[in-house]
Specification:
Shape: globular
Largest sheet: 7 strands, mixed
Bound molecules: 4'-deoxy-4'-aminopyridoxal-5'-phosphate
Distance between the termini: 52 Å
Structural class: alpha/beta
Number of strands: 13
Strand content: 5-15%
Length: 401
């Protein structure tokens, strides 16, 4: 009998488990709209040309593979903060940002969670309802208490703005408010700039700490600056802000695990102390981060020709997703005779669309139509082609009614 007899089987991951089920299906029309990874119109994975070029340059330079410092590659940490806050943001000049390279968005969030657990005992993190499924896991594993604020309104398939504001107001002073910088996952519903202003007002009033998860900068609108506007607005108000970044989507570096955690502090001394503690947390977890993705990002941003090329490819990817979104809306509107208003599909932004399908309807999508998706009704438009929009519309309409 095994020493591990007492260990029970863990449930499959609700997002990554979808890909496993997809692989096991051999139907020719099957579609994987589960995981959020960009695909070409031919539904193939995509490596950015600019990444291939940067890779080639790295190989030519023949850099060594010695350990990075605990906080990561200095050149990466510099450019990643500049990309997020803007290169001429006073918080950078004043050295008020603690930036530490993390294991992509997930690992960066996990570092911030550990910092909260250690230095803000009992403080709560407020997360949107719904949110990316891994947020709850991350805070649970870090033993940080969390609760939800209202976000999604099923009646309008839009934002429950009043509910959101009321719940942020009602949270104990000094709570951490987790916000999706752009392209909210899973709903695709973002606050308007005016609504962001009101959210910042309430957070400031209640002395809360805004905690941004920005996993789609440049990938939502096609512009790095537009997608960072929410974060920059909070920083411009002089607030202290936490922000976790990811290069999985906007540079297609999913498997490189490259991202960063940034803590904007009100003084350079505080930033230095925070950074020292983030390093102390990272050291016994994974010692130091991987170098390759960090070099790719630093080299692309540091070279004006490559940077331009990256921006063009980002626009292309965001553009393909927007085209698919329009085609899906057109297909739904023309095929559905029930009079249902599908305009919510067009109002959403980013790689996801929240369809409003419930769990039983999602099961119908998968069992009858071989469309693989998470059970919350989310579909990844990045995994959809123009050619498959009509088929998907048929599946959604059949499942709804
Ligand atoms: N936050 C959100 C909201 C996400 O959607 C994702 C990617 N699915 C991440 C963080 C982190 O992804 P990664 O760890 O690959 O950067």
């Amino acid at each position: 009998v095994s020493h591990f007899e007492g260990i029970t089987m863990a449930p499959p991951d609700p997002i990554l488990g979808v890909s496993e089920a997809f692989k096991a299906d051999d139907h020719e029309l099957k579609l994987n709209l589960g995981v959020g990874a960009y695909r070409t119109e031919e539904l193939q994975p995509y490596v950015l040309d600019v990444v291939k070029k940067a890779d080639k340059l790295l190989l030519e330079k023949g850099e060594n593979l010695e350990y990075l410092p605990i906080e990561g590659l200095a050149a990466f940490n510099k450019v990643t903060a500049e990309l997020l806050f803007g290169a001429d943001n006073p918080v950078i000049k004043q050295q008020r940002v603690a930036t530490v390279q993390g294991l992509s968005g997930t690992g960066s969030l996990r570092l911030a969670a550990a910092l909260i657990e250690r230095y803000f005992p009992g403080a709560k993190v407020l997360i949107s309802s719904p949110t990316w499924g891994n947020h709850k896991n991350i805070f649970n594993e870090a033993r940080v208490p969390w609760s939800e604020y209202r976000y999604y309104d099923p009646k309008t398939v839009g934002l429950d703005f009043e509910g959101m504001i009321a719940d942020i107001k009602a949270a104990p002073e000094g709570s951490f408010i987790l916000l999706h910088g752009c392209a909210h996952n899973p709903t695709g519903i973002d606050p308007t700039p005016e609504q962001w202003g009101v959210i910042a007002d309430v957070i400031q009033e209640k002395n809360h700490i805004p905690f941004f998860d920005i996993a789609y900068q440049g990938f939502a609108s096609g512009s790095l600056d537009t997608d960072a506007a929410s974060v920059r607005m909070f920083v411009a108000r002089g607030m202290e802000v936490i922000a976790a970044q990811s290069y999985s989507k906007n540079l297609g570096l999913y498997a490189e695990r490259i991202g960063a955690i940034n803590v904007v502090c009100s003084s350079p001394e505080a930033a230095a102390r925070v950074k020292s503690q983030l390093k102390r947390i990272a050291r016994p977890m994974y010692s130091n981060p991987p170098v390759h993705g960090a070099r790719i990002v630093a080299n692309i941003v540091g070279d004006s020709a490559l940077f331009k090329e990256w921006n063009a490819e980002m626009e292309m990817m965001a553009g393909r997703i927007k085209n698919v979104r329009h085609k899906l809306f057109d297909s739904l509107s023309s095929k559905d005779k029930s009079g249902k208003d599908w305009s919510f599909v067009l109002k959403q932004i980013g790689m996801f669309s929240f369809t409003g399908l419930n769990k039983a309807q999602c099961d119908n999508m998968t069992n009858k139509w071989h469309v693989y998706m998470t059970k919350d009704g989310r579909i990844s438009l990045a995994g959809l082609s123009l050619a498959k929009c009509e088929y998907l519309a048929d599946a959604i309409i059949d499942s709804y009614h």
